[in-house]
Amino acid sequence: VVWVGTCLGAILLGLDIGLAVGLGLELLTVVFRTQFPRCSVLVNISGTNLYKDRKDYLDIFEPNGVKIFRIPSPIFFANIEFFRDKLVEAVGFNPLRVLRKRHKALRKIKKLLRKQDGDISEKGMRELFPMNVEVSDRPSDLNDLPIRVNWNAELPANISVPRVDLHSLILDFSAVSFLDISALKGLKTALKEFVRVDVDVYIVSCDAYILEKLHSCLFFDEEILTSMFFPTLHDAVLHVLQKHQEDKGGRVIKDTKL
């Protein structure tokens, strides 16, 4: 495209202007590739500590409940929404939609509790504890709900909530060279949405300069912790496998030396 555009520009507009047209086209292609990068879902190549695009390999291992998402470009104001859309597409659900469905279900559960329905505990109620809800888009009248719900268990017949089988999301930042303020805010919002639907989020291979910028911009709080960051992708996967005791298939990775 750059070559054809430069050639036509030189023929129709003259050599100097044609070269300027070629330069402009080259800049546009760089912007386009950066704004719409080719994000990918990574999997482990069986018997190794290598992680590649799952579309390119056959002999692969992907732990249950784990998704590894690679961002192949810098993240800035022009592509943060594209990145979030691709992330939702990769995991197969929208965490904000799931969160809203859960809050709607909680309101129904609260009504059932008021009626003292005896069989609620057999259909998804687990571990009584005071639930703390402090986000502005969450219903404020649920702060005093004294139960915790197992959303993957069987719920009462009139309550329907999307099932989330993902327990760990790993973001590969090895190709992310910088973040601007808009992207930082969008990234923080996206991570919190996953955290609030009980998905553990990890960021791997993050550049030291970006980590320093995250600290200076107050990126971390009670939900976004520094413990989310791991030096390599393999370290994060080993941590996830150990945490969730994926013994059935985890031996493929656990027996591999770093």
Automatic annotation (TrEMBL):
Gene3D superfamilies attached to this UniProt entry: STAS domain
Annotated InterPro entries: SLC26A/SulP_fam (IPR001902), STAS_dom (IPR002645), STAS_dom_sf (IPR036513)
Classify the source by domain of life: Eukaryota
User: In what residue span(s) does the STAS domain sit?
Assistant: 56-240
Q: Where is the signal peptide?
A: none
Which cellular component appears as one GO term in the record? membrane
Name of this chain's protein: STAS domain-containing protein
Provenance organism: Pogonophryne albipinna
What Pfam families does UniProt report for this protein, alphabetically? STAS
Q: What stretch or stretches form a coiled coil here? A: none
Q: Extract one GO BP annotation from the record.
A: transmembrane transport
